[in-house]
Amino acid sequence: MTNNTILVIGSTGKTGKRVEDQLEKRGISVRHGSRSADIPFDWDNPHTWAAALAGADKVYITYYPDLAVPGSVEAVSKLTELAKAAGVSRLVLLSGRNEAEAEKAERVVMASGLEWTIVRCAFFAQNFNEGAWLDEVLAGTVSLPVDQVQEPFVDADDIADVAVAALTEDHHVGLLYELTGPRLLTFRDAVAEIGAAAGRDISFVSAPIEDYTAMLTKYGLPQDFIWLLNHLFTEVLGSKAELADGVQRALGREPKDFADYAREAAATGVWTPSA
Ligand SMILES: NC(=O)c1ccc[n+]([C@@H]2O[C@H](COP(=O)([O-])OP(=O)(O)OC[C@H]3O[C@@H](n4cnc5c(N)ncnc54)[C@H](OP(=O)(O)O)[C@@H]3O)[C@@H](O)[C@H]2O)c1
What we know:
This protein is an alpha/beta fold. The protein contains eleven helices and ten strands. Helix 3 packs parallel to helix 4 and helix 8 runs antiparallel to helix 9. The longest helix has 14 residues. 44% of the residues are buried. Bound molecules: NADP nicotinamide-adenine-dinucleotide phosphate (NAP). The site of NADP nicotinamide-adenine-dinucleotide phosphate has 26 residues, from strand 4. NADP nicotinamide-adenine-dinucleotide phosphate (NAP) binds next to strand 4.
């Protein structure tokens, strides 16, 4: 492990694994920030943080489950202090749009005295094939407490490209990039595009928030997670139905369109139910 090592927190997650792949392909020394890594990193166990940071020069921070949850700002703050003490020079924070807690965590990183870049993102397209909505897509009905809400879904490949640029190039230091895809879609539109790409009839049901919450409770989901989904669908999504230019500013190219995402994901067979 050299002192050019980059710690990727969430190295098995949607953006972290892409960031890690790209860094390793470039021959950069990466430390896996995962609960199952040789040197484990666990947000729920602060005693693991110092060892994971030791010897790292830069850190890609992805908080789990979401910067919107209570306690996230304190955790990012403590991690930032430990990173400074460990001699880390640069922090790249994955953040979310239109979230008050996420913006507080951004400010902690910006005020750290270390080099920083904020990668503030819209809803990830990959939630439909690598995240919480895969099971419903496979089952043929996606039920969500939104109707006319429009979201500029962003592709995790674009997020990773921006994060890697921020970790490896100096001209992104001190910049906040707001990343969206190139198009606003309703969730109904998104599910229709997924169905078309997968060659399947996948329906979208707009459920009242009370019914949605009752359904999640019936399925036994933890109350914290239900709170988070309610918060995301009632307060975060849709209240910023506009495009941003973070991908263009950071990379000098257009972001990936949702139709290209859907085509590529469908080609992997991830949305084809097993017989
Ligand atoms: N998903 C979105 O649409 C979206 C949009 C904007 C912003 N964000 C931000 O992105 C971050 C999460 O991204 P995601 O939703 O795509 O999740 P994700 O990165 O796919 O989450 C899975 C990762 O979280 C790790 N993890 C789970 N519990 C952990 C714990 N206790 N300690 C350390 N690592 C843990 C897992 O690692 P191991 O299991 O290997 O330990 C895995 O690498 C959040 O901070 C959120 O604010 C998400």
